[in-house]
Design a protein that fits this description.
By secondary structure, the chain is an alpha+beta fold. The chain has helices at 10-21, 31-34, 58-75, 86-90, 93-99, 125-130, 134-140, 144-150, 177-182, 187-190, 196-209, 229-237, 257-271, 285-293, 307-313, 315-320, 357-371, 374-384, 403-409, 423-429, 431-439, 444-460, and strands at residues 46-51, 78-83, 106-110, 163-170, 173-176, 299-301, 323-326, 341-349, 386-387. It folds into two domains: 10-170 and 343-409, Periplasmic binding protein-like II (D-Maltodextrin-Binding Protein, domain 2); 173-340 and 418-460, Periplasmic binding protein-like II (D-Maltodextrin-Binding Protein, domain 2, 3-Layer(aba) Sandwich). The longest helix is centred in the N-terminal third of the chain and has 18 residues, at 58-75.
């Protein structure tokens, strides 16, 4: 259930909005709305919303609560919110629940994780065409071909079952200007990082002169090995073979030259160059961000979703420009500007049953529309990186950490992962064990060959 049951007092409202307001973040929930009479066009309708984006940082959780409350106040509908984690959909929980008849009305996820649930999803093409205002539709239009390309292996690929509301380019670079300066480096000349040779050189300078023992990190944990900086390095070498599967979803790309070279460099950061911590085979980007905040990391690749955590825990350095974002960079000799995969945070409506099915599905889309309002898109971007509406990009630039400039620049030429029904297994469950073995000294080529054989066998079943 949401935390908004019962009457709201002005103190309740202020308590829920103070943390966001302190950072200049405002949403569609306003005092006038909270204390006004709710509209009744959806009065009596109850929908279940499985929220996953709230797991990323506390500010996004508060933002989610605010958006849900605004929707309830405007429509008279009731929203039961379940707060889920990434592991719930990466693991079997969502798939098992859906198959057993335990399903929400609407949920949010990352676009490449929903192929396993596609038979349960309601296409939104008619809602987008008929129930979305022209300006919002125009702002989102550029994302729809990417959604269709991501689902190209499905016969109904033209159906938009995943509607983007946020963007996560994988994975920008987070740097501490003070560490560069402590090492005697001119930050304006040495950042952004140009390529992997430059990356290694800068990290070694910081390690030796600023005394940061492990200035960067590569990630071995199941959630992060296959979806953070590694993918971009592979893609910078060859776009055609950089995804987990080939174009028609018939075989693994993991034995390609780009994959072998990309994973070998990834391992070398840890094994050869000794720039990543002893915890590398089990490390995550969230842990690296915490170490970055504590001054134990200098340059890390991480989801821009971590911005809210930085705002809360490094407010001063975020405001004075000590913390800076930079674009993902290529493997030396690779193509700069093509080294990015774009993940999209999307909404999905689950097909409903019974006499009120159409009404519940409409209510679900109305909740999605609340998230797509300009103020909520901008609020999300300020707490977690980028919104999906292209028309609002000019509103999210200008911050000292340059998250908006860097994030939007990375969209040019970005690719998307496939959304095969087994994509969760291919990208995480099957890949990570082989990645961990490689990080601990096993042959990269042998581990990728074994991984590819497992994927190819799965594609035949």
């Amino acid at each position: 259930m949401t935390e908004f049951d019962g009457p709201q007092t002005r103190r309740d409202f202020l308590k829920k909005t103070t943390a966001l307001a302190a950072l200049g973040i405002t949403t569609s929930l306003t005092p006038d709305l909270v204390f006004a009479q709710a509209k009744t066009d959806l009065k009596g309708v109850t929908i279940d919303y499985w929220n996953m984006i709230g797991v990323q940082n506390r500010l996004v959780r508060q933002l989610s609560e605010s958006v849900v409350k605004a929707f309830e106040q405007k429509t008279g509908a009731k929203v039961n919110v379940t707060w889920n984690s990434y592991g719930d959909i990466i693991g079997p929980k969502y798939r098992t629940n859906f198959q057993g008849g335990v399903k929400p009305t609407v949920f949010d996820a990352f676009d490449r994780w929903t192929g396993q649930l596609r038979p349960f999803l309601r296409p939104m093409n008619d809602f987008i065409e008929n129930n979305l205002d022209a300006q919002t539709r125009k702002g989102l239009q550029w994302t729809l071909p990417l959604v269709q390309d991501q689902n190209r292996g499905f016969k109904d690929a033209k159906n938009i079952c995943d509607l983007p509301f946020a963007l996560i380019p994988q994975a920008p670079v987070l740097a501490r200007r003070d560490h560069f300066e402590k090492a005697g480096l001119d930050f304006t000349k040495e950042f952004p990082i140009r390529d992997t040779d430059h990356y290694i050189a800068v990290c070694k300078e910081i390690q030796g002169k600023a005394r940061i023992q492990y200035p960067t990190e590569v990630y071995g944990k199941i959630w992060d090995f296959g979806d953070t900086q590694l993918n971009g390095w592979i893609r910078s070498l060859d776009i055609e073979t950089s995804d987990f599967l080939d174009a028609d979803w018939t075989k693994s790309n993991a034995t390609s030259e780009a994959w072998i070279k990309g994973v070998q460099f990834y391992v070398d950061v840890y094994q050869k160059h000794k720039l990543s911590s002893p915890n590398t085979p089990q490390s995550t980007d969230e842990e690296a961000v915490d170490l970055f905040i504590r001054g134990q990391k200098s340059i890390v690749h991480c989801d821009i979703l971590n911005r809210g955590t930085l705002l809360e825990k490094m407010k001063g350095p975020m405001e004075d420009g000590t913390v800076q974002w930079g674009p993902h960079f290529p493997i030396t000799g690779g193509k700069s500007g093509s080294s990015v995969f774009l993940a999209m945070a999307t909404f999905e409506i689950v097909r409903q049953e019974g006499p009120d099915a159409a009404l519940k599905e409409r209510a679900a889309f109305e909740l999605i529309k609340e998230w797509l309002l300009p103020e909520n898109q901008i609020a999300y971007a300020r707490t977690a990186g980028l919104c999906a509406r292209e028309d609002l990009f000019p509103k999210i630039v200008g911050a000292p950490d340059r998250y908006g400039e860097v994030g939007t620049a990375m969209l040019k030429g970005a690719g998307v992962w496939n959304n095969h029904p087994r994509s969760v297994d291919f990208q995480y469950n099957l890949l990570a064990p082989h990645g961990q073995k490689a990080l601990q000294g096993a042959s990269v080529a042998d581990e990728l060959k074994a991984y590819a054989e497992e994927v190819n066998a799965a594609l035949k079943t």
